């Protein structure tokens, strides 16, 4: 138990820094790490992916609050965008979480691997849609939020890999898009975690310290560490060359995707 708790703390520290630094959501790192840890602590193989996704989303509740506070102090959170996108986020993420709890583990793993590769390619190419328009109206923004929430629930992330490009496309400055994305991560995390809790409630053979598909030991370890390191990531995002860091992180994601794919084969 001590070793697993230390592993969770390490996962949380890394996820917090990434959430504040890159605005990509610590779930991209959390999920693969938990996929490696959970089989050693008694999570049944058929539930490992769902447990990793649900716990990742639950931990992002803490990470997003810490990161958003740090960005807000720098005036980098657009609360008008947050208010417009949140209704769609809540519906899309909760519904996606419920659906994911009934999907085959293999499908979720393949979806996650494909998502990692898409994110990595986007980071390496540094492609961004040309900033050529303003944010859509409240209905359009909410619909976009629904799509972001749905995908986020399938991969256990705070939505930054989708919301940041969307906002920069709509002429929101990059640092402000990252800061606003950190705030948007909170409703994604709440609705997604709730979906995995409800969908996993009463499932047999889950570890004792679990509420549905959320592992409480992992949540405590990850959340406590990420809360401390997310502000550090936010500070670094305003001081370090984010483009070079993203390319390095993209190479790491490709390695993770290849390793996961090899494991499936």
UniProtKB/TrEMBL annotation:
Transport recorded as keyword: no
Keywords: Cell membrane, Membrane, Transmembrane, Transmembrane helix
GO cellular component: plasma membrane
Lipoprotein found in the keyword field: no
Recorded topology in the membrane: Multi-pass membrane protein
Residue spans crossing the bilayer: 7-35, 47-68, 80-100, 106-127, 139-157, 177-199, 211-233
Location(s), subcellular: Cell membrane; Membrane
Coiled-coil regions listed: none
Family matches, as Pfam families: TauE
Chief location: membrane
Listed PANTHER family: MEMBRANE TRANSPORTER PROTEIN HI_0806-RELATED
Protein family membership: Belongs to the 4-toluene sulfonate uptake permease (TSUP) (TC 2.A.102) family.
Name of protein: Probable membrane transporter protein
Organism: Desulfovibrio legallii
């Amino acid at each position: 138990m001590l070793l697993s708790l230390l592993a969770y703390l390490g996962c949380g520290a890394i996820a917090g820094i990434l959430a504040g630094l890159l605005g990509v959501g610590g779930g991209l790192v959390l999920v693969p790490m938990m996929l490696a840890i959970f089989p050693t602590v008694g999570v049944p193989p058929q539930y490992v992916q769902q447990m990793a996704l649900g716990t990742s989303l639950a931990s992002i509740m803490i990470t997003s609050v810490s990161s958003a506070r740090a960005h807000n102090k720098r005036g980098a959170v657009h609360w008008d965008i947050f208010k417009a996108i949140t209704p769609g986020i809540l519906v899309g993420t909760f519904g996606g979480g419920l659906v994911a709890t009934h999907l085959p583990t293999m499908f979720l793993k393949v979806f996650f691997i494909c998502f990692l590769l898409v994110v990595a390619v986007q980071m390496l190419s540094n492609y961004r849609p040309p900033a050529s328009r303003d944010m859509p109206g409240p209905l359009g923004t909410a619909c976009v939020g629904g799509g972001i929430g749905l995908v986020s629930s399938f991969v256990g992330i705070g939505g930054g890999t989708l919301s940041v490009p969307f906002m920069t496309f709509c002429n929101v400055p990059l640092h402000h898009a990252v800061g606003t994305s950190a705030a948007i991560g909170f409703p994604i995390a709440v609705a997604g975690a709730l979906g995995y809790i409800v969908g996993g409630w009463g499932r047999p053979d889950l570890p004792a310290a679990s509420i549905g598909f959320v592992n409480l030991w992992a949540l405590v370890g990850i959340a406590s560490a990420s809360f401390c390191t997310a502000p550090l990531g936010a500070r670094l995002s305003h001081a370090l060359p984010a483009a070079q860091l993203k390319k390095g992180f993209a190479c790491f994601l490709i390695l993770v995707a290849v390793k996961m794919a090899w494991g499936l084969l």
